[in-house]
Design a protein that fits this description.
The protein has helices at residues 2-25, 40-63, 69-77, 86-108, 116-119, 136-157, 167-186, 192-199, 203-206, 211-230, 235-243. It is mainly alpha-helical. Helix 1 (2-25) packs across helix 8, helix 3 packs antiparallel against helix 4 (86-108) and helix 6 packs parallel to helix 10.
Length: 244
C-alpha cells in the first residue's frame, strides 16, 4: 500500500504541476513585440492529457494510475479497487496535488508582479470565476458530464476485454478532448485534487471549490455504476461453464 499511495501522490503532483503549470505559465506568452507564442487552450488540454498518459505508463502498474479522487470512487463502484483503499488514495491524491500547487506557486512567483488572484492561477469556478461567465448550474452539469465520460473511457480501456497496452493513450486523449470541451465553462476540473491544489492561493475560488468536489464525484459515481450494470464482464463465468 505504501508504494501504491506514493505512486498516486506522485502522479497527482505531476498532473497539477505540469497541467496547471502549462495553464499558468504558458497558455499565453507575449514576445517583446507583443506576439502571442503561448500554447493556448489546446496546448493546456494536451499538457494534462500527455501528463496522465506518461504517469499512467510510469506508475499505473503500481497503483492503477488514478491520480484523481473521482477516478478512485468510480473504480471502487465498478469493482476495480477495494473500498478500504479509497480513503488512503484520496488523502495521497489531495496531498500530492496540493504539493504540486505549492511548487507551481513558488515558480510562478518568480515573475515580477505575479499575483495568483489576478491571474486566476488556473482555478475552477462559476459566475465571475468561470472563464466564459457561466452560472452554477451550467458549471455543475458540465463537470458531471465530462467526468462521467472520462470514467467510462478509463473503465472501458482498462477492462480485461479491451486491447492490451493502449489504456494510457486512450485515457490521455480522452482527458484532452474533455478538457477542450469544458475549459471555457468551468476551466475544466474533472478532479477534486486538481481544483483544491490551486485554490489555496485564490480565496474566492476556495469558496467555490465544493462544486468541484461534488460534481466530479457525482459524475464518477454515475459512470462506475453504469459501467458495472451495462457492461458486466462475464468472461470468467463463460470459462467456468466451458471447463465444466
Amino acid at each position: 500500500m505504501v508504494s501504491r499511495l506514493t505512486a498516486e501522490c506522485l502522479g497527482t503532483f505531476a498532473l497539477v504541476s505540469i497541467g496547471c503549470g502549462a495553464a499558468v505559465t504558458a497558455a499565453a506568452f507575449l514576445t517583446p513585440t507583443k506576439v502571442n507564442i503561448g500554447i493556448g487552450l489546446f496546448g493546456v488540454a494536451a499538457a494534462f492529457g500527455a501528463t496522465v498518459t506518461a504517469m499512467a505508463y510510469a506508475v499505473g502498474h503500481i497503483s492503477g494510475g488514478h491520480f484523481n479522487p473521482a477516478v478512485t470512487l468510480g473504480a471502487a463502484l465498478a469493482g476495480r479497487i477495494e473500498w478500504s483503499a479509497v480513503l488512503p488514495y484520496w488523502v495521497a491524491q489531495l496531498v500530492g496535488g496540493s504539493l504540486g500547487g505549492v511548487v507551481l506557486y513558488v515558480i510562478a512567483s518568480g515573475q515580477s508582479g505575479f499575483s495568483a488572484v489576478e491571474s486566476g492561477f488556473a482555478t475552477n469556478g462559476f459566475g465571475a470565476l468561470s472563464p466564459g461567465g457561466y452560472g452554477l448550474f451550467s458549471v455543475f452539469l458540465v463537470e458531471v458530464v465530462v467526468t462521467c465520460l472520462f470514467l467510462l473511457v478509463i473503465l472501458g480501456s482498462t477492462d480485461d476485454r479491451a486491447p492490451e497496452g493502449f489504456a494510457p493513450v486512450a485515457i490521455g486523449v480522452g482527458l484532452t478532448v474533455l478538457i477542450m470541451a469544458s475549459v471555457t465553462v468551468s476551466n475544466a476540473s474533472l478532479s477534486p485534487a486538481r481544483s483544491l491544489a490551486v485554490t489555496w492561493f485564490v480565496p474566492d475560488a476556495l469558496g467555490q471549490v465544493w462544486v468541484f468536489f461534488l460534481a466530479p464525484l457525482a459524475g464518477a459515481a454515475i459512470a462506475g455504476v453504469l459501467y458495472k450494470v451495462a457492461f458486466p464482464n462475464t468472461s470468467e463465468e463463460v470459462l467456468e461453464r466451458e471447463e465444466a
